[in-house]
Amino acid sequence: MRYVMVQIPKSTTPALPAPRSVPTSADVARLAGVSRATVSYVLNNTSAVRISEPTRRRVHQAAKELGYVPHAAARSLRAGHSRMVLMPAPAVQAGPLYSQFLNDLQWALGRLDYTVVQYGSVGLCDDEAARAWAELRPVAVLVPGVELGPAGVAVLKRSGARAVVTLGSEPVEGAHALLMDHEGVGRVAGAHLHARGRRRVGVVVPEEPGLESLSRLRLAGVRDALAGTDAVVTELPLAYEEEAAARLAARWRELGLDAVFTYNDEYGMLLMRALQDEGVRIPQETAVIGADDLMLGRLLRPRLSTVHIELPSGRDLAELVDRAVREPGAAPETHQVLGSSVVHRESS
Amino acid sequence: MRYVMVQIPKSTTPALPAPRSVPTSADVARLAGVSRATVSYVLNNTSAVRISEPTRRRVHQAAKELGYVPHAAARSLRAGHSRMVLMPAPAVQAGPLYSQFLNDLQWALGRLDYTVVQYGSVGLCDDEAARAWAELRPVAVLVPGVELGPAGVAVLKRSGARAVVTLGSEPVEGAHALLMDHEGVGRVAGAHLHARGRRRVGVVVPEEPGLESLSRLRLAGVRDALAGTDAVVTELPLAYEEEAAARLAARWRELGLDAVFTYNDEYGMLLMRALQDEGVRIPQETAVIGADDLMLGRLLRPRLSTVHIELPSGRDLAELVDRAVREPGAAPETHQVLGSSVVHRESS
What are the UniProt keywords, alphabetically (chains A, B) (predicted)? Predict the structure, then answer.
């Protein structure tokens, strides 16, 4: 048997590893003719070590040729933390207002060189969820809603999270808190209807699962605004379905209501449509006010009055996260957010 | 000076490490009186090694007491992969239809013991994005839209992703493809309007950034359906604003259109409102059809005709991902998804 040495032209032999073998930093080091430590310094942009420009270029070139991607996990194991900000993905479908807020926040954190990761924690609750999040070793965790207790915060901090920020009605021990005054949404709606001379006020309480905590607070806000007046509040459970709205509208006159706060604009559109089909004149017989200030409310006739909700700005929140990451020892900050104001249109 | 030994009651001295030091598996091993390997076997649920129940209990107890959370990164470094399915978070605000799809998908993948992580890749494109995703070493990547090319797929696979699934109009080399026929949405809308006797068909093209790729395909579908007929298609750029819709409605009669496909139901609501304010009778003078089959279309008067879009079921997609993860060597699958059918209501 004879062996012939053949020089294979470079173009047909890309310096790629065998299919499905993952290139490592050792491969990069070999191809670039440097040490693994040098590869690590260059690719992690370490400024502590001086490395010449030509060497840097050689390492980057070799990494590119091999298709080498550093392992965030390995990097965070070395660094002790990542640039990852973890948020639980919403368990219920996010409304337009919250989706916009999330988008702004991602953008703002991205500009500060963080990566936002939304974690689908379907079916996990409290500490169990915190433990699952902690496994990813995020540098900060941002938790909207009421899903986290003090034990969960402690789990996250022990696993290396430098900042935990909650968005909810109550502060959680050990975490920064953005206090969202959801009662305030109901309070301004109730006060508005009262000021318009209404005294028999219905409040829509959505039957969709996942909205209870919010709808309870909005209802409590209406009650609070009308406490000590001669107005009466009636709770109106309602599913987000045409048929349910038609059934409610059919007994509207026996309910004897002269006003309704519809939880949000989408329920407002649903109920207003059913009331109009039933011949109830809006606002003469019944004043209607929604919440969220969505475009659709402006497109209804009569135009739907609403509560405009000012969510915290993505930029402010991103800066709070960044501040908290830089100073993990600082005392938790508490901020009141969620300004509520009535946008008075034709329906009330 | 005298020293007094005091036995501090257990309740006030939890076996926690000093604040901010992260407990390790070595701490767990020490407290449980077992080896680190045993801790790893127990906490990773390895079935290959037999470990007695009392020992298992002791390890779990110690882990709990210390607040020890395994490091997903370390675990995936050892195992070579994770149970993480990564999806890029949508760059534009997701509509209700897509949000619902995402929720179902997360749920279905969760039931198969995967964790869905939505990655906010604001400002990254193609290979750069793929490289960023690859750093998290997901076991599968699911990419809606057109953000990934063959090079990106290769980067992901080399970093250990066993499956890459794209949802788009074209297959991408090396990836499983769910082909979404967005032209079909326009095609059925165009055919419907033609069948209703309409010949001068406007097509709304949203001016919002991020919707171009979809709206172009829907427009092409309408053109396709009407090619070779005597019908004429007019492109109608429109911003999602009342004023823009009012301006378009004001010149409606000089445009001489007898029908309009409004891209989706939300634009349908916007334009229908403006046309009605302008005194245009719907459907007599102008037939209107939207798309997405949202609740709001049913609440309009006249009720809005629409194109119902059947997205792939979360369960089917989750099963495809799971199959692909189990058999990473199998040839990429291609599936046609996105069924389109007209829901004929009062507006057309």
Answer: DNA-binding, Transcription, Transcription regulation
